[in-house]
User: Fold this.
Amino acid sequence: MLVSLELRPKASKAMVYQSPLIAVFMTLITSMVMFWLMDTDPFLAINAYFIEPVSTLDGVAELLVKATPLILIALGLSVGFQANIWNIGAEGQLTLGAIFSGGIALAYFDVDTPFLLPAMLVFGVLGGMFWAAIPAILKVRYNTNEILTSLMLTYVGLLLLSYLIHGPLRDPDGFNFPESRLFHDSALLPIIIEGSRLHIGFLLTLFIAVLTWMLLIKHIIGFQIRVIGMAPAAARFAGFKQKKLIWITLLFSGGAAGLAGAFEVSGPIGQIVPVISPGYGFTAIIVAFLGRLHPLGVVLAGILMALTYLGGDAAQITMNLPNAVTGVFQGMLLFFLLASDVLIRYRFKIGSIKKETT
Amino acid sequence: MLPIMSKTPMLQLFGVTKRYPGVIANNNVDLKIMPGEIHALLGENGAGKSTLVKYIYGVQKADSGTLEWCGKQTKINNPKMARKLGIGMVFQHFSLFDALTVKENISLGISSKIANSDLDKEIINISKKYGLPLDPDRYVHTLSVGERQRIEVVRCLLQDPSMLIMDEPTSVLTPQEVELLFRTLRQLSADGVSILYISHKLQEIKDLCHTATIMRMGEVVATCNPDHETPYSMAEMMMGKNISTPNRVEDSINKSPALIISDLSIQSEKSYGTDLKNINFTVNTGEVLGIAGIAGNGQKELMAALSGEVLAERPDSIKIANEPVGLFYPNQRRHAGMVFVPEERLGHAAVPMMSLWENAFLSGATKMNFKKNGFIRVADVKDYTHDIIKKFGVKTPNIQNIASSLSGGNLQKFIFGREILQNPRIIVAIQPTWGVDAGSAAAIRQSLIDLASKGCAVLVISQDLEELFEISDRLSVIYDGKLSPSINTKSISLKQLGLMMGGVSVFSEKGAIENVS
Assistant:
């Protein structure tokens, strides 16, 4: 008796959009089983993890603070992923964005000007683009695999940050702690909700989501990106320039990640520290897929993923659950999403014979 | 004549039915093959021939039906079992390693018992006995397609089969190579080997086969003796309707050079591709130039060079009227009045998962002015798509349907419509009716002739000789990346063309087809 997968004649369009919901549901069920096996009350745990953290306005604001970099990075990645350009190094690009924008803030630490913040954001974008340009040029020139180069550059970026923060960028009055000066007010993003940490970067991110949607659906560039992802030969036939699209997608995703880095240092953190992101650049990959590479989906998925971070922190405090639960949640979510995607396109067939090719 | 042998059929099928999701590939198919019989399985693409053969060879199970082998009911679970019973199969697409020798390739595909014995001698014996000249130590990449096929045949014969299945064996051969193959098959038949011969080429079947089973839409529509039929009558049974031949209006307009190719040489980007060598030709306004040739002789490379997917080295090696376009990208060439129909419909000419209107935009964007500040003018594209569907009789419920949901013929009509509605000065099409149903093929050929009569220059690269004879004013042959001078279609015979397609001079040096009468 053999079980095999058989291609369905037609994938249900409705199911394609429902599969993230199915994945979330399955993750909840499985995690409740997991909590039960850990001798923790599953309902209390779920409550502590997913409900309590967002039961106050402050909690919601904190959720959106964490969602901002996830959404922003995932927007950039989803554009590249549609063109089969796999930028895995958003974490590094975020780090470079933080270094660039924070560097500007520190260089003008004694200047009070309204131009400083915009300059920081621009430099953040440039930093991320610079880091993404390296895999781009390697791919265009030497046909290297951007998955490897972008991923390896992440570690270079993190070490570069570590070097800078232990050396040149260290606060001279900071008792040798590896931290920069605190940014002054004109280097900090305005707060939207008084008393919370929710900054204007969230609104900018939503605006960028709308722009990304326009780019992908209405603009010729988005059309070219989709064609090259689905049928590279058709893209050549239509005369689309593959190298140009490699550049565009990598610079776009790098720029978005760099901006996320700039938001982090000029928003919730307010200085440069040795660890800027708790893995936003990697989690954003899950966000991009969970959101079906669609800007609206990415916004929703980003908020959901932010909840796993937030809930992880809360569950540590109230339930004594290990922080690893966050990673388990994220992993389960991606697993169930991919599994339901497979089952949308294929169905099980039991007892079919093995096919031999000669 | 069928040699007289035992009365027990070698193979008999009863009521074989196979359903795929959404389609019945085989519906209650019966088949009887006698020992020593050359039995044709005739049908259009998609008639269910391959499905049936996959069942016989044990690649696939049927939903219902039984199989009798030498009078005994048998279940063939996999190809290994089929080979053990004595069924050999030569596939349409060869599975050979280019970088290995003939002997190495053969030893990979057979049981170790035979492989360990004196294989060299065995190969030479078989190839002598059946007139299949083959050198065991040659590397496969140095061989012609016909010689490669011989490897597959010899590989089957080494296992001493009682039945041989040949899947469209002649689609890649020259007429001379075909004759040689037929001689081998007749000899095998005389030795009592049954042959199941799959084809849609009518003349061949009439020449070679003792019996023909004709399939249409998954069902057997007739079993006949090809000797008592004409190719036309068999075609009617195969297609189930009267076939129309295109009308041509002769020499109604003045001709001037529209597309001029001079000394075009391009190195292939692929390691086993074909380099183009000093190609020269001209297509005039109002005429159809056909380029014949066996697959893999540089057609794809020529198409890529003409469409601009690969650029020429010099601008003036490709000229549209007086304008050098050798360094133009595809869209610049479209601006200059050229349109292209690539060989592969899904994935090259159209994006399978995109809607029809998006696919209309794919190549229509430049010429039809569908862009405004980089944004897509969706309403205009949709009007254009409706236009294509109406004028070219594309059957689809909706322009939102994705390209891969259309049948081959419908999609090809859509693609031709998309290109023709751009009012081209030059159209270049490769394999325009490959795998397309007869009705759509006739419509497409007619639309090409109509284009020419309106003054468009038409270039058709095809392997289908009937098609080329039907629509071309002049014919050239591409062989090993070189193009022959063109010859008026009326003054060339099929035999001459066949010799040219085999690259006569090259072949006679090697003496590989010295037996040609």
